[in-house]
């Protein structure tokens, strides 16, 4: 199973690994995340509620904020409204990968080499009107089936006509720097896979 959250959870975790994180611990609730971060020495906490910052938590679900930190040897504890909760709900699957546009091709390549009988793609925000997750799922599906994917501009066209996109691009949502949008919508920034087991997300070589 591939759980997809483009804006922003799995862009955040990908940047955390790029900045040296040992693992990301994915939580279902803010309370769980706060308690877990307090129990892990040196842990960094990233959390949001309904897409908004959580009082007392300085780092929202923001890749640009994570990018600014050296996470070498540290754990990032994460809570988001869609992605981290989606992984928590899917944890009984045989294998759970987390993906965004930033590692879409690496995720598809990893799965093609292992040739599982079935791959379920979960676009976590699609039902809530977040077309970027469906776009990422379509791109990965095309790659898995050996088809040439549509251009990223075409896949993201349904997102770019929305008021939400304009608001995010202009940095008008609290806890959402405008840079976050560009980091989330950049294809294949990273060449690694993120795999979850028991709520622990780790970096895995895509080869």
For this entry, give a set of tags.
207 residues; alpha/beta; nine-stranded mixed sheet; globular
Report on the structure:
This protein has 207 residues and is an alpha/beta fold. It has one domain: putative 2-phosphosulfolactate phosphatase. The chain is built from ten helices and nine strands. The protein has a nine-stranded mixed beta sheet, sandwiched between helices. A hairpin with a 2-residue loop joins strand 8 and strand 9. Helix 5 packs parallel to helix 6. The mean pLDDT is 94.
Largest sheet: 9 strands, mixed
The number of helical elements comes to 10
Low-confidence regions: none
Distance between the termini: 18 Å
Computed Rg: 16 Å
Furnish the topology, listing elements before pairings.
Layout: E1 2-4, H1 9-18, E2 23-27, H2 30-39, E3 44-49, E4 52-53, H3 63-67, E5 75-79, H4 83-89, E6 96-99, H5 104-114, E7 121-123, H6 131-144, H7 152-155, H8 157-160, H9 163-169, H10 178-184, E8 192-197, E9 200-205
Parallel strand pairs: 1-6, 1-7, 2-5, 3-5
Antiparallel strand pairs: 2-9, 3-4, 6-8, 8-9
Brief overview:
Helix content is 38%, strand content 19%. With 207 residues, it is of the alpha/beta class.
């Amino acid at each position: 199973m591939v759980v997809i959250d483009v804006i922003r959870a799995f862009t955040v975790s990908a940047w955390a690994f790029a900045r040296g994180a040992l693992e990301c611990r994915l939580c279902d609730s803010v309370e769980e995340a706060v308690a877990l971060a307090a129990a892990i020495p040196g842990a960094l906490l990233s959390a949001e509620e309904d897409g908004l910052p959580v009082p007392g938590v300085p780092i929202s679900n923001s890749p640009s904020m994570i990018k600014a930190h050296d996470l070498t040897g540290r754990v990032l504890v994460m809570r988001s409204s869609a992605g981290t909760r989606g992984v928590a709900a899917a944890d009984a699957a045989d294998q759970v990968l987390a993906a965004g546009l930033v590692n879409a091709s690496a995720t598809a390549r990893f799965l093609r080499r292992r040739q599982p009988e079935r791959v379920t793609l979960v676009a976590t925000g699609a039902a809530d009107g977040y077309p970027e997750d469906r776009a990422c799922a379509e791109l990965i599906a095309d790659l898995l089936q050996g088809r040439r994917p549509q251009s990223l501009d075409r896949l993201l066209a349904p997102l770019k006509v929305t008021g939400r996109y304009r608001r995010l691009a202009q940095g008008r949502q609290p806890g959402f720097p405008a840079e976050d949008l560009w980091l989330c919508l950049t294809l294949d920034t990273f060449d690694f896979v993120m795999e979850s087991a028991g709520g622990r997300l780790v970096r895995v070589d895509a080869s």
